[in-house]
Design goal:
This protein is an alpha/beta fold and about 475 residues long. The chain is built from 14 helices and 21 strands. The N terminus is likely disordered. Bound molecules: thymidine-5'-diphosphate (TYD) and magnesium ion.
């Protein structure tokens, strides 16, 4: 291992030696007899190469990897554990620390857990480095030191961003490094409470015989970071770039390896960004925090409903407010539909930010029960502001917006609605209905159209139960059709 720039002397502590040398002991160079082929998309393993993965059907994803052979007798050498009764297991009181951003803390399940390994994915340019630089700076007040490793940008580039964000903390250390041994060496020297690795695709384990960013490299580096996080009780955040389809560029296995998977969502051209917890061993999944990219980095949006409705225009047909739930948070969004005459042979259905199948289904139901001419029209549906919503609660608003646009009759300004639409035109119940009504009421909505079944248990004076799409439309539009 090379000593790094500031002359770090390797510790002789046995535990540290294991961390630093681990990779080189375990791995063997690939050869025809002791290698296998692993799919970088799904992890399928085979002794022979295929052009197309037999498991997931992806092309050119099988890569050769060395087989790790254990020394003889290794199986027997492991220490036998004695099973214990679950009720006798004492829970350790985990002391979390804050990221300095209340909404982001909520997404994490109440702050960072020491010793956990997190993955933050997202497209290039979405704001991963910006967010983590602020977080690494914020945490120094509570945990003392944090270390930010950038394998993509030079120290000068990181400094320009840090100045822009107004970072002056004395406890935040930077290094521009790619070599795994050097990175872990620095960690053992600096002893940070938080380590940010930007990005895992640039890390290189010298003991693995493939290029940085390859599945073998990513996996090996991630395993070494995991061992470091657990043995030193340090929170480690790995940044991972995603490919166009939204998947992480590298093996999916990385998602299984880490404790928490966070993804940045949103279009680069839009103002806001959403960080969503797709997996969380220490909190609820699907929790989100909403940010706005400003002049001085990412700013948390505490009231996303107000943000998404801020540009709403009164008395416009084709717009209907719905309450969707993201994680534990009810958020009001405006569903917009545009129904226009079909100029070409086949009517078009265009879905922005909502599921295409949902659009087809809702349009078909509305066409059968309310507007028979809808099947001959072009239908466009999107969520204003670009929020991605994929939950059944917005079905009713989609249907109402389509009918509103078709007849050019606006939806009442003080009406919001939610409910799933069934194939026979019924409005069905969805989770967290009370929270949705409360959020709509908080933002001043005076009538909330809800699935009829909910009104039995709800005492809210603003709810109006609807059992069919016809009832929903009748109650929502300014004058009924
Ligand atoms: P970055 O955080 O580098 O994205 P990633 O690490 O995900 O690739 O940068 C995100 C974009 O945000 C970049 O195009 C510049 C812009 N930006 C701002 O608008 N305001 C700021 O204060 C900063 C630091 C960046
Ligand atoms: Mg970056």
């Amino acid at each position: 291992m090379n000593n790094h720039a500031w002359g770090f002397q390797r510790k002789t502590d046995a535990r540290h030696r294991t961390l630093l040398k681990k990779g080189s002991e375990d791995s063997m160079p690939p050869s025809a007899s002791n290698s296998r082929f692993v799919c970088s998309s799904c992890g399928y393993q085979s002794l022979r190469w295929y052009g197309r993965c037999p498991e997931c059907g992806e092309w050119n994803t099988l890569e050769e990897q060395p087989t790790v052979t254990k020394p003889r007798g290794a199986k027997r050498a492991g220490r036998r554990q004695t099973p214990v009764v679950l009720s006798a297991v004492a829970l350790e009181n985990v002391k979390r620390f804050s990221s300095g951003l209340p909404e982001f803390d909520r997404t994490l399940g109440g702050g960072f857990v020491p010793g956990s390994l997190l993955l933050l994915g997202g497209e290039p340019g979405i704001g991963k480095s910006t967010l983590l630089l602020s977080v690494a700076d914020n945490v120094t007040s509570s945990i003392g030191r944090s270390l930010y490793i950038s394998g993509e940008e030079s120290l000068g580039q990181v400094k320009i961003r840090a100045d822009r964000l107004g970072i002056e903390s004395q406890g935040l250390y930077f290094a521009s490094e790619r070599n795994m041994d050097a990175i872990l060496g620095m960690c053992l020297e600096i002893k940070p409470g938080l380590l940010v690795v930007d990005s895992i695709q640039t890390c290189e384990d010298p003991s693995v015989d493939s290029l940085p960013g390859s599945p073998a490299q990513i996996r090996s580096c991630a395993i070494r970071f995991q061992e470091y996080a657990k043995s030193e009780n340090v929170t480690v955040i790995l940044v991972g770039h995603t490919v166009k389809t939204g998947d992480l560029a590298g093996p999916r296995l990385l998602e299984h390896l880490v404790d928490t998977v966070l993804y940045f969502e949103g279009e680069l051209s839009h103002l806001y960004r959403i960080v969503r917890a797709r997996k969380n061993r220490f909190g609820a999944t699907d929790e989100v925090s909403v940010f706005r990219m400003g002049e001085k980095g990412l700013v948390e949006i505490r009231n996303p409903s107000e943000f998404f409705l801020s540009e709403r225009i009164a008395d416009r047909s084709g717009c209907c407010v719905s309450v969707c739930v993201q994680g534990n948070k009810p958020i009001l969004v405006e569903v917009q539909a545009l129904v226009t005459p079909c100029l070409y042979g086949t009517p078009r259905r265009v879905a922005g930010e909502i599921d295409y199948q949902k659009l087809l289904l809702t349009a078909a139901v509305m066409s059968k029960y309310l507007v028979s001419g809808l099947d001959k029209m072009d239908v466009f549906v999107k969520i204003a502001g670009g929020a991605k919503v994929n939950e059944p609660g917005i079905d009713l608003a989609c249907g109402v917006a389509m009918v509103s646009s078709y007849y050019d009759i606006p939806v009442r300004h003080n009406v919001a609605c939610f409910g799933e639409i069934g194939l026979s035109g019924e409005v069905r119940m969805v989770p967290r209905m009370e929270d949705r009504v409360r959020e709509a009421s908080r933002l001043g909505f005076e009538r909330v159209l809800v699935p009829h079944g909910f009104t039995d248990s709800s005492s809210s004076p603003i709810t109006i139960g609807v059992s069919t799409v016809e009832e929903g439309v009748r109650n929502a539009l300014i004058k009924s059709k």
